[in-house]
Amino acid sequence: MCLALPAELIAIDEASDMGTVSLEGVKKQISLALVDGVKVGDFVLVHVGYALNTISPSEAQKTLELMNEAGLVSADEEAAQ
Predict the structure, then answer these.
(1) Would you state the CATH architecture of domain 5-80?
(2) What is the purpose of this protein (predicted)?
């Protein structure tokens, strides 16, 4: 089973088709090659360094809440959304 994490896109480098996402204060550079039309502030599902697709902020929040219940993210990150 694979798990994709929701994260907020905080920066885009259009020249390299890369972006920076943030989750629990951790920033990670990811490829945006598989998604079209993303913009800073969008939430994306990230798996092995790639944004797979965009999701709504409400869906990201629901997912983070479930992950918090499972002990995968902290409540602090959930409150920051």
Answers:
(1) Roll (2.30)
(2) Involved in the maturation of [NiFe] hydrogenases. Involved in the biosynthesis of the Fe(CN)(2)CO cofactor.
